[in-house]
Amino acid sequence: MKKKQFAVIGLGRFGGSICRELSRQGMEVLAIDIDEDRVDEYSSIVTHAVVADTTDEKALKSLGIRNFENVIVAIGDNIQASILTTLILGELGVRHITVKALNDYHEKVLSKIGADKIVHPERDMGVRIAHSIISKNVLDYLELSDNHSIVELVAGKRLAGKTLIELDIRANYGCNIMAIKREGEINVSPLANEKIHIGDVLIVIGDDKDLSRLEDQLLDDD
Q1: Looking at the structure, do residues 92 and 136 belong to the same domain, yes or no?
Q2: Hey, which bits of 105-184 come out as E strands?
Q3: Which residues span the domain enclosing 23?
Q4: 20 to 30 Å CA-CA from 65: which of 37, 165, 186, 219?
């Protein structure tokens, strides 16, 4: 099986962490940054690491960037460089471009010039941490859209011993339990007669308001 090839532009904390994880997963990674020290830092981690100004179309062409199906633009605080790089990648025909946005204005521009996926790592992580702090039952939180999310909830005493059909979470809360994690095992699409145990992790999808009501229900009194 052919390894997937990724190019990561910008080797700050966000781009660097992507490089490390992709390399750990056995992917071929081209790491690019205008800072030579950062490139040197990742030269032994990724497949190739090069110093380049990605706002220069000729530089990107010389790297064969159009041959990469996935390019991640993780440029830190230079919005102009991020936008221009994304624009050039689109013009060169890169198939899938993921870009880190610094703010909502940046996101609007990126969406108009060809970014396939736009991420807000700091904001998204802040949302996830906030949810985990608010409720001891929330392990993780992933925003799907402005109104819908997936959340991992720890089942407390109120749910222990009850089956999914008894709880009827879809009818009572408008949410769907997609899977149950228990002792390292994951049960995808559990049956209606599946009984909940204390400590089970319920992977639930739904409207944010409905999920909040469900979180309140999961909280134990003690």
Answers
A1: no
A2: 117-119, 138-143, 148-154, 176-182
A3: 5-119
A4: 37
